[in-house]
Amino acid sequence: RETRYGDHWRIKVLLQSQMDPRFNDAIDCDWLVANKRTPDRDIDVITAESRGCAELGIPVSFTNQAQAAAQSGTPIADGVFTFMIHPLIDCEWRIEVQIVDGVFQPDAFMLLSSAIVEYVEPARAEVDTTKSWAIMISKEMTLELPTNMPLKSFNEDNQRVLTKAFLNWLPVTAPLENFMRPLAPESEPVAAGEKEYVHPEKSTYFKSNSEILIPYLPYFSNCRGFGRTIPLWAITEQARGCKWAPEGGEIGLLSLGAQAKGDSCGITEVECLLDEIPNVKMGNPRWFEAKTGAKLFEVTKDAVSAGELPNSLGQNKPVTEPVYLRSGVPGGSGVLPGRVTLAFEYWQRGPKEKMLAAGRAWYSDFSSNVAESVLAGKSSWKYKLTVLYYPMSHFEVMVNFAFPFSFYFMLYFGMGCLSVGMVACLWCYHRFMCRLAYPPKLDIRRHWDVFLAPQLRGLGMVASVCTAPVIMGLLLFAGKLASLPWADDCDGGQQEADCIKGLLDHVSSSYGGETAVTTTTYGDRREGRAGIMFCCIGGYAIAASLKLLVPAAESNYYKREDKTGASRLKEIIKEQEEEDKGDADTDAQTNAGEEEEDEMPPIFTTHMWKRSSLGLLVYGNAALQISLLRMSFSDQFKQNILIFLVLLFIVRLIIKIAFTHYICESMLVVAISLTNQVIAIFTLLASPTLFDFLVSYVALIGFQMVERIYIGPNEDVIMGKFNQLKGSIDNYLRTLKKSGAGEDEDIDSDDEGGRIADVDEAEEEGENEELISFLSTLSADGAANLVIPMLFSFCMFMPDESQILNSFGIPTHNAQFFLIFYIMMLPFQAVADKICINICECYHGWKVTDYLEYCAYRYIIRTADWKGNDNVLDQTLSPHVRSIDQMCFSDQYYFVNLLQAFGTISWFFGMQILFVAEWNVFDDPATPLILFLCLCMCKGTHSMTLVSAGYLRVWVVTYKTFAQAGYQQAMMKGVQAMGALSNDEKPPAPPPGSVHDGWPEPPQYDKTGMERYRAAFMAENQLWLQVAVSEMKDKRLIQQTRGDLLHGLANLLNEVSPEDYAPEGVEGIEKDTFAFGAAPPLDLARAAGEVQRETYENSALRQLIRMWRERAQFMLHLQQVSAVVKLNNYQRRDACEICGKNKEMTSLVVLPIYTMLHLASLYREQRDMSPLWNTQLWKHFYQTFTPTCTLCEDCAKFYHKRNTNIPVNEKRFQRLQVKKKTAYELMRRSEYPIVPLDADLVKVLRLWLSWTRAFCNDEQPKDFLPRFGFDGRTAAEIRREAILQKAGDDDEDLPELEGDAEEVDDDNESKSSKEAAGDAAKKKKFKDPALIEMDAEDLAKKLPLRVPKTLKWSEETIMKAWLARARQSMQAPSTSSWAYAGEAQQAQSSASGAASSSQNRPDESAGRGVRFSSDEEAG
C-alpha cells in the first residue's frame, strides 16, 4: 500500500515485429508515447517509429485507477489486475515491471514471479489454423466512425495503419468509473478527446482507400475485462458459455433436414462504458443513435489470417456479410440503449471449416430519462453487450443465402416446375373430365405468337418511352448514374451526403430558411427531390394513358342551344346575301377566308368526365396500394403473411368488381388490376424467410388459378345477385313511402318484370363476355410478372432512398437472389398461363386461342394507326367489354396499360421516398422548378417519341383494305387462275366500296383465306345478317311465304307445281280445307300447343312455378311435422290480444305469432343458411323459440287466410304505453266546448278551495268562516239557540238534537251507558219539531233573483238536472239528493245500509247553500 504506481514503480510494454532481448527505448520515447492529445498524433507515432520506439502506452483507465487508488490508500484493483495485448500484426513483445526508485523496494528481484502471461490464439474458425473472422468498416457507411479505430497516417498519400497493437485494461469485478473513459477525463473539457481514437472526418481517415479490416468488434469499447477492443474470435471462442464441439457435423448442399452441430456460445454478457458524449452532435448518426435498418459493419464470410490485417485490402476484396440493425433507437432525443445484442451464425461447411453466414444486431432496454450529466459526458453510461454465436441447420443456411448460387438456381428451377406441375394437375383433372367431343390441344407456339409476343413488345415500347425522363431526372436531381460538371469530386474521401451532385442541391429545403434543428445535407435534399421527380413523371404517364384510354369525342346530344335567336337571324342574313351576290361572289368570299363564328361550348363533355372519373379511381387505388405496401412492413403482416395474402386477394377482387361496375368499361380497369397484382406479388417480400416467401408465392399462384377459372367467369352472376338484392331493398324502401295497395302491387309487378328482364339479359350475354373478362385478368397478371423485376431493380438501385428492402428485412447483398427468382419465374409463368387457357377451353368450352388469333388478325387489318380510334365495335358484345375487344389484346393494349401501371408505380415509389425522407413538398422552394423541368422533359420525350415512331413507322397502317395490298391481290389472282373458272361460273362481284371490292374469292381448299374472307364479310354485314337470321327464325314469316318457297323449290327440282297436287273435281270447303299449303286445323292446334309448351319449358316462369311448388310441398311437410310438437311458450289469456274480445263473447285459440315461413327463415339464419334441413333440430327450435298469442276465431281466420305474421307485439306495446289520463286530458277530449266562468262563480270556487284547505288542516268551520265574513254557526245551531231561549220562557222540554247528545256525553262522561239510557227513558215525550214556530228574523235576507233573458248551455243543463231530481224526489222523497243533483246515482251505489246512509247524509244550509259535513266526517 505504501508503493504508488508511477512514483515508485511502473509497467512498460514493448512490442515490435522483431525484438532483441537487450533492446531498450530511447529516452524521448516516453514523451512521444505519452503525448496523446496533440492535434498531430500520427506525426508523433511516425516520429517514434523513426526513433525505434517500441513502447505501448499504458491505458488511461489504468493510470486513472492508479491515481485514485493512491489517493485512497488502497491497492490497484485489489492488487490483481489483468492487461490484454491485442496485436494487429505478427510481432514479438516484452513486459517490464520497472522500479522508479528504491525507497520501498531495495531488492529488484522481489518482483520476480509476480506476473502470469497467457498466450491465446484463434483456433475454431478454421480448425488447426489461427485464422479468424474480421470486421470491415467502409467509407460508404452512414454512421460515424467508431471510437476504437486504429490510428492511420493522415499526411501521407498512401495511408497505412500506425497502430500495431492495443494494450487494454478494465477491471473484471471492480466497479466501472467515469474516469476510466479515455475520451473524456475529468481534467479536460467535455468535447476533448484522444486524436488516436477520435476521427470525425471520414474523408481524412479514408483518404487513400475506402475500407479497413479489423479483427475486433467496433463501436463497443471500454468493456469489462476486455478494455478498448474485444477480439471477435475471443468472444466467440474463449468467453464463458462457449462450447467446442468435436469435428464433423458438416452440412452439404443435399443434407436436407440436417440439424445444426458445432461450436456455440450462449448468452455472453459484458458490461461496457459509453465512450462518446451524447450531447456532442456530429454530421452523421453515431452507433447509439442508429435507426432500424442501419448497417453497423460487415463481417468476412471466410476466416482470414491475423497477419493479413489491417493493411490487407487490395484488389482481392473479401466476401463479407453485412450486419444490419434489426431494432434501432426509437424517435426522440436523449434516448440511450441499455442493451446491445449481437448474433452471429455460421455454416459448418466442412469438418474443420466454417463460414459466417449471418449477423444481426438489436438495441433494447431504452432509457429516455437520462441524466444531464450523462448526456454532457460528466457521468458514465453503462450498457450490456450480449453476443450469441451458434451454428445453422440446413434450412437456416438455405434461407440465409449462404449456399452457392448454383444451389439457388436449382431451387428456383424446382419451384418453377412445382408451380407448373400444380397447374398441370388441375389441367389433367379438367382434361380427363372434359365433355367436349374434340378437346382443344395444348399448343405453346400459338400462345407465344398471340399472347406473349404482344406483352414483350408493349413492355419494350413503355421502357423506351419512360427510360429517358427517368434517367434525366436521376442525373439532374439525384446526381446518380454519372457525374455532371457542377458536381463535386467525392473521391478524396468526402461523404456523398456532403457533396453537391444535383442541380438544386444548393437550394434550401424551406422558404423560411434552415435552422440548426431543421438543417439538411445535400444528400437529404437529393432524396426528397428525387421523390418529387418520380411523382411528377408518374403523374404525366397517368395523364397520357388516360388520353389514350378515353379518346376525345363530342356528342351532339350535349350541344348547347342558342335560345336567343341570334344564330338563326345570322343564317337568314347570310342566305339573303348569297342570293344577292350570286354563287361566284359567295365562292370568292369563302375563299377569302371568312372566319367562322365560335360555337357555344357544350353543357357536358363525356370524355372529360370519364377521364376525371378514371383519374380519381387510379389515384385513389394508388393511395390504397401504398398504404397496403407500408402496412406490409409491420411485424403483424410478416407473422401472418398467408392470412394477409388472402385478405389482399379479397381486396383486389372487390376493387376490380366495384371499379368495373362504376366506370362500366373493363378496359379502363385493367391497368388498375395490373397495379394491384404488382403490389400483391411485391408484398410477398415481407415473408420472414425464403421458405415462407416460396410458399406464399405458390399460394398466390393458386389464388390466381381460382380467380381465373372459377371466380372470374361468375363475377357477372355475383353482381347480378347483388343488384337483385339492392333492387329488393330499394323496392321495399319505396313501398314504405307509398300508401295504397294498388300502387304497391304495381311496383311489385314492375320489379318482377325488371328482374325477369335482368335474367334474360344475363342469359343473352353468352360466353364471349366471360372469355374477354378472363383474358383481361390473364393479361393483367402476365404484365404484372414483367413489371415486378423492373420495380425490384429500382428498389435495389435506390435502397437508401426508398428503404423498401430494409423495411422488408432484406439485406442489399441478398436482394439479387430475389431478382433472379422473379426473372426465372417468367418462363414458368408463361407455361402456367397457357395451361390455364387450355383448362378454360376444356372446362368452359371457350375457344381462347382462336379468339386471340382472330384478335391478332383484326389488329393487322385495322384501318387506323391507333386501334382505339377505330370506330368499328362489336355490337353483339356487352357494352362494358366492347372497348377491350376493340384493342384486340395487341401491342397497343399492353402499351397503354403498362404505361398507366408505370405511372402509378412511379407515383407511389416517389411517395415512399418522400415518406422516408420526411420531406415537405409544399415548403420546398425547389418544388415548382422540379415540376416545370419534369414536365418539360416528359413533354419533350413525348414529342420525340411521336416523331421517332412516325419516322420508324411504328404502328403505322400500311394499307387500309386488302384491295390496296399488292402482294395479297397478286396471290389471290394466282390462286383464281389455277382454278380456270369461266365467267359464268364465277361468283357475282362484290358491290363497289365494300370490304371485298377488288378481293378475289379464295378457293375452297384455302382454309385460311376462306376464314379471313368470311370474317371480313361477317364484320361488314353484321347488322344485316342479324336482322336476316332473326327473320329466318320467325315461323310466322316462313308460314306466310310457304307457298312461294315451295313453288320456287319445285321449279328448281323440276317437280310438279304445288297447286296441281289437289285432286280434280273438288270444290267448296273441301278444296279450301285440303288445298295444298293450307294449314290443317288439328295439326295447327298441336303445333301451337307444342310452341307454347316449348316456350313455357324454356322460360323462367316454369322455373318459378317449380320452385313455388317445391316450396309449397315443403311447407306442407313442415306444418305436418310441427303439428305434433307442443310449444313451451303455450299460454292462454282471458281475451283476444288483437280485438279484446273475452272468452265469454267468443272462443279463444292459442297460435304462433309468426308464420311457418318466417319461422323457417329464422331457423335457417340460425344455421348460417345451410342448404341441409335437420328435422330434429327444427322440432327443438319450433318447440323452444316459437312465441304464441291468444286470438279469437275471427282474428285467427283473418291472419290465417292472409298467411301473415300476427301484429300482437304492437298491441302489447300499446297496452304497456297506456297511462291514466289527467283531468286536463279528459277535458281536452270532452265533447263540450270551453266556456269562461262568471266572476261570482270564480269567487265561489276560490272560497271553496280555501275552505277545503282549512278542512285539510283540521280547522272547524266556526273557526275559519269568520275570516271570510261569515258566521261560524250553522243554521241548526242558530235555530237551537232560538228554541232554547223560547223554551226557557215557556218552561217546556224539547227533543234532544245531535249536538245536545254530544254535550250530554261530554258532561256525563263518568256515567255508564246504562244510566244514560235510563235517563233518556225518563224524559218526556218528544214534540214534533215541524210544529215548532221559529222566528225567521235571524235568517239573512236574500236579494231577489235576477231572471236572465237567456240561459247558457251549462246553466240549462244544470237546471234540467235539478228539475229532473226534484220531480223524482216528489215521487220518492230523498232529501240527500237535493244537495247534489248530479250525484244521486253515485250516492245510491256507494250506500251500503241505512246506518251508512244516515252517516253520509249531508246537511243543507239554510241561507247560503253551503254544505258542511258532520263532525265525524270532518274528523
Helix/strand structural class: alpha+beta
Strand content: 5-15%
Give the proportion of residues in helices.
Answer: 40-55%
| Amino- and carboxy-terminal Cα gap | 114 Å
**Count of alpha/pi helices:** 49
Q: Would you tell me the overall average pLDDT?
A: 77
Gross geometry: extended
**Low-pLDDT ranges:** 184-195, 555-560, 584-598, 739-765, 960-981, 1297-1317, 1320-1332, 1375-1419
How would a crystallographer describe the biggest sheet?
A: 9 strands, mixed
How many DSSP-defined strands?
Answer: 18
> What radius of gyration results from the CA coordinates?
55 Å
Oligomer: single chain
| Strand line-up of the largest beta sheet | 7-5-12-13-15-14-16-11-10
Report on the architecture of this protein.
By secondary structure, this protein is α+β, with helices and mostly antiparallel strands. It contains 49 helices and 18 strands. A nine-stranded mixed β-sheet has the order 7-5-12-13-15-14-16-11-10. Strands 2-1-4 form a three-stranded antiparallel β-sheet. Strand 14 and strand 15 form a beta hairpin. Helix 12 (606-631) packs across helix 25 and helix 19 crosses helix 25 (891-917). The relative contact order is 0.05. Residues 184-195, 555-560, 584-598, 739-765, 960-981, 1297-1317, 1320-1332 and 1375-1419 have low confidence and may be disordered.
How are the secondary structure elements laid out?
Blueprint (H helix, E strand, L loop, with lengths): L8 E8 L12 H6 L6 H10 L4 E2 L3 H13 L11 E4 L4 E8 L35 E4 L26 E4 L33 H4 L5 E4 L1 E2 L12 E2 H6 L4 E2 L20 E10 L21 E6 L19 E8 L11 E10 L5 E11 L7 H4 L6 E10 L2 H6 L5 H28 L11 H35 L43 H28 L16 H26 L14 H26 L3 H5 L1 H23 L6 H13 L7 H22 L3 H23 L3 H25 L2 H30 L1 H4 L1 H4 L7 H29 L4 H13 L18 H8 L4 H27 L9 H26 L13 H14 L27 H14 L1 H11 L2 H6 L1 H12 L15 H5 L7 H17 L2 H24 L24 E5 L3 H11 L8 H11 L2 E5 H10 L5 H10 L5 H7 L9 H18 L4 H4 L10 H16 L7 H10 L5 H9 L31 H19 L4 H4 L4 H7 L3 H6 L15 H4 L1
Parallel strand pairs: 13-15, 14-16
Antiparallel strand pairs: 1-2, 1-4, 3-6, 5-7, 5-12, 8-9, 10-11, 11-16, 12-13, 14-15, 17-18
Helix pairs in contact: 8-16, 8-22, 9-10, 9-19, 9-23, 9-25, 9-26, 10-12, 10-25, 10-26, 12-15, 12-25, 14-15, 14-16, 15-19, 15-25, 17-18, 19-22, 19-25
